[in-house]
Amino acid sequence: MHTDLVAALDIGGTKIAGALVDGHGRIQARAQRATPAREDGDTVMRAVEAVLGELAASPLWGRVTAVGIGSAGPVDASAGTVSPVNVPGWRGYPLVRRVRHAAGDLPVELIGDGVAITAAEHWQGAARGHDNALCMVVSTGVGGGLVLSGRLHPGPTGNAGHIGHISVDLDGDPCPCGARGCVERIASGPNIARRALDAGWRPGPDGDTSAAAVAAAARLGDPVAVASFERAAQALAAGIAATATLVEIDIAVIGGGVGKAGDVLFAPLRKALAGYATLSFVQRLAVVPAQMGTDAGLVGAAAAALTRTADATPARV
């Protein structure tokens, strides 16, 4: 990617982060606002416009060639709209049109947050050098994205690779998405904690009932905590193996809060994967932790904008 400068937005239910990012993935300026997630859609948009306004005040803004957006989903890149589950004021919200207007008619590229993190890990992180990769975010939910034949593969609406809603337990618990036994329903942080609590795990004196607290207990050998992580690992392994079998990825990268659990997650995950990824062309599949950290969404949104600029494709919407 050349040394162009792009603006990047990482939009979630808690914060709206913005940055100016160069062609080497380096952040040159930042801005951030809290997401007024319980307010109406235009109030949320004003927070986005405030972030863009702060970036536009930078002396570097004149070099910006495009804007990349990684947004909580669902997104519809073909329509330029977003309907984030955790921002109820935005349903079919015309984010691309509004951002383009706020950014002085620069071209705008929209992708989902899982796809953005995938773009970052492939460009600068753990999937660098791999032409076929799955990157996952395992935290409050489970999202993901794909790199196929060396290129980001967002799909027509920007949601391809959404591994959290592959069903891995045909008779499993109902998932809020409407299906049963989804990877997310078993492997997300809140579900790991819920399962441990239901099975009799009790938090320490601090009362922390998060998945991180369950991970700490598992590291100390608590059998209920260990079992909850093993069940999450099994669900992740089944979803990863299904994806690898379908599209021939050779690496799966796992980020997000649950991905930080270390061996408590990765040891049973690699063991379970060996039992699911059995065909010859998926047996060498590597599973590794993400490297990009909290700036992954911004760097990935920038990568999408830079790639679009390099392709010189006309604006989608």
TrEMBL record:
PROSITE patterns: ROK. InterPro entries: ATPase_NBD (IPR043129), ROK (IPR000600), ROK_cs (IPR049874). It comes from the Bacteria. Pfam families: ROK. Belongs to the ROK (NagC/XylR) family. This is ROK family protein.
